[in-house]
Design goal:
212 residues; alpha/beta; Uracil-DNA Glycosylase, subunit E; six-stranded mixed β-sheet; 6 strands; 12% strand; globular
Length: 212
């Protein structure tokens, strides 16, 4: 099975998933989108109102800001795979519960395995906790580490900068440095954009890098 076929299969499973209570209130599940051979995966927290309406990740105000941040890193949205730790919207945009995170964990890990990226960028506390469960985002943001052979870069969630304007310059600076990191660690390879319905152990061995 090709990576594209694997991602399509996972997306269909997510769309029909009933493993936690979030399926009762969702309008559309949000599996994620991007090229199957993306060098970079961005992992957010969970779908919001607009994502729940459209079935796509980061399409609201935070998504517009994310597009700006990606440009700072020399990236376009169609070059990266974007998803979340939970694939359905928590009611009222509340934090995802442990059982909801657990229900989606296999989906996320299967997506990562299929894509096999060079870099994983975590956006917010909950995705960061997958790789750095004891870290605080206020001190860990922007600090890359190698985890199980991949470079993982924890970042503030774009929405955090919208809610706390004092964070905006910090988030922008982190993404500018991400661009420098990509140039050092990611060989160029062609990518193609695909939406999910197109037919087509975490902290172990983590080593902090001194790049930033």
């Amino acid at each position: 099975m090709t990576p594209e076929e694997t991602l399509t299969r996972i997306s269909r499973q997510i769309t029909a998933c009933q493993q936690c209570d979030l399926h009762y209130s969702r309008k559309l599940a949000v599996p994620g989108e991007g090229p199957a051979n993306a060098q970079i995966i961005l992992i957010g927290e969970g779908p919001g109102f607009y994502e729940n309406e459209q079935g796509r990740p980061f399409v609201g105000a935070a998504g517009s800001f994310l597009d700006e941040l990606l440009a700072r890193a020399g990236l376009k949205r169609e070059e990266v795979f974007i998803t979340n730790v939970v694939k359905c919207r928590p009611p009222g945009n509340r934090d995802p519960l442990p059982e909801e995170l657990a229900a989606c964990r296999d989906y996320l890990e299967s997506q990562i395995a299929a894509i096999n990226p060079q870099i994983i960028v975590t956006l917010g506390r909950f995705s960061m906790a997958m790789y750095f469960p004891l870290a605080r985002i206020g001190s860990a943001h922007g600090q890359p580490a190698t985890v199980n052979g991949r470079l993982v870069v924890p970042m503030y969630h774009p929405a955090a900068a919208l809610h706390q304007p004092a964070l905006k310059s910090t988030v922008e600076r982190d993404f500018t440095r991400l661009g420098e990191l990509i140039k050092q660690h990611v060989p160029a390879r062609p990518v193609g954009f695909s939406k999910p319905d197109d037919p087509v152990d975490p902290e172990e061995n983590a080593t902090q890098l001194s790049l930033f």
